[in-house]
Amino acid sequence: MAGFDAFLLGEAVKEGARILDGKVDSMTYAASGMPRLTVSTQSGEQVSLDAAFVAIATGINGHYGHDYRDDALIASVQRLNPAFVPGKSRKALIFELDVGEEYLERNLRREIYFIEYGSKHLAIEHTALIPKGRFLTVAMIGKCIDAAALPRDSQRIVHDFLTLPQIERILPGIQAAPLACACAPRMAVTPARFPFGDRFAIIGDAVGARLNKDGLFSAHVTASRLAQTVLHDGIGRQALAKGYGKAIRWLAADNRFGRMVFGVSRVAFTKPVVSRITYQAFATECKVRDERSRPLSAVLWKISSGTADYREVWREMCGWSVLRSILAGAAVTLRNVAFEAFFGLKWGEYGRYPTVVLKEKREALKERLASSLETEIEESPEFERMYVIKIRGAAEEIMEELAQFGGPHARFLNLRFIEVRRIEGLPNQVGSVIRYRIPLVGVGAELRLTRVIGFETLLYQLDGRLASRGKLIFNVAPAKDGNSRLSVYAAFDYKKGKGFAERVLWMGAKVLFPEFVHDIVWNHALCTIKEEVERRHGYAPERLGKLKHAPPR
Ligand SMILES: Cc1cc2nc3c(=O)[nH]c(=O)nc-3n(C[C@H](O)[C@H](O)[C@H](O)COP(=O)(O)OP(=O)(O)OC[C@H]3O[C@@H](n4cnc5c(N)ncnc54)[C@H](O)[C@@H]3O)c2cc1C
Question: How far is ligand 1, taken at its centre, from the CA of residue 72, in Å?
């Protein structure tokens, strides 16, 4: 037998252990007071084994799909210690899709996704998408899996999951991928109580695990704590309660806090309004705060990675720093919703994607734009905004979409009250002019395309009467995963005006068009451009074709 189990058994043998293959049917106490195991060996004979100490590590999955609480051995342990209450478990659905390395490289490069919501008809709570070599592992829990009569229903769940719109967005064409394997193991969801007695103790999954995480780590904690207790404190019930009991109490507390953490995070990610606020809070942190002082990001990382005890996660979740980020997110969301309505921006069929440039990455982006244009970009303009989005498409295809800028059929920058029109020249050609105009007021601004660097960069310059050093730059660069990154950079200095009246006029313009308006408008525009490119150039069907011909495992 290969694998981790075999490796561990091999190490134990090296230390002098002897392996007896078989199934332990029950445990009783012999007249000597030692635990006596009845073992059915592989040859079919029954062997009695008296042991000075028994560590039970039966897991919760060696019982042919039945709940391990119905197991004969566990029942015999309960007879020895009536206070022992086995933990509860629930089914998970784990399947692997053979999608090929190239597909994963393009769509999930070094990324793991957590999906917290299915649909009205697919009640899932928590799903992880993990790329492994050429396979994509999907691990999910939820009410639909609890209620499923497996394996019949699992095929339907797999199909319904892969056809969810949010999955199609992350993994286009995935529903055509061949299923390499599927299983429905149990996961511990509450720890056992009093899982020890004179000369025995239960460890590993059979005693419990951290909620939705870290089965191996939890098994390591219980096993090592038990070993220390046995070696240093004793093997009687009292000694075990004192020493080994610490690990059990840690597990119980961690599970309790874990349930609270997941309860709150489920609300944060499944209720549309709350999830928009949470996302906005996260994006605002990334935009305005230094990498090391983003409390919400830190908490989200801890929840998904499992690197901290849930007690610590809960404390941070309820702390002022995270609350302040959420309140800021709520305020920004409220403002954005109002301005989206004002400008008539509708999301409809378009998905929302992050367009924030992390604070620590802004200088690098400016340097890239400068090197593409072979020119300097001004140090600190009064107004400066940048956005980026990943698009599954080639630079030519993205430039083709940008050629719609100001055109009658453009799907982006269709704003109520502001007319954006190309009034001179040809699309994406030097000399073309885009005019932003507010017809109601009769004022406007003009952007002239002054430089075009292949399918890479477009530099528009703003009419000098309105602002100094005004620039709008579009840049398409290859992303590491073979896709493209479209960046938008907008910057200018406000006009100061000479006399009092002029100064008041320019200050008025600044108030009327605050900087955040650009964030709202460009976020919508970039998401629209992305989806238009990906749909028009049929990225999903092309991948679909590739997946259909992936070789079987
Ligand atoms: C598909 C899957 C993927 C996972 N991925 C991860 C992961 O990525 N990271 C992570 O940390 N954890 C993961 N886990 C959880 C992890 O495998 C478990 O937490 C860990 O294996 C628990 O170890 P254990 O020794 O307690 O139980 P197990 O590994 O389940 O071993 C129990 C053993 O006892 C045997 N047994 C049962 N009853 C008897 C009996 N009466 N007599 C004799 N032998 C018996 C069983 O046959 C089995 O061999 C995963 C689990 C599954 C099912």
Answer: 18
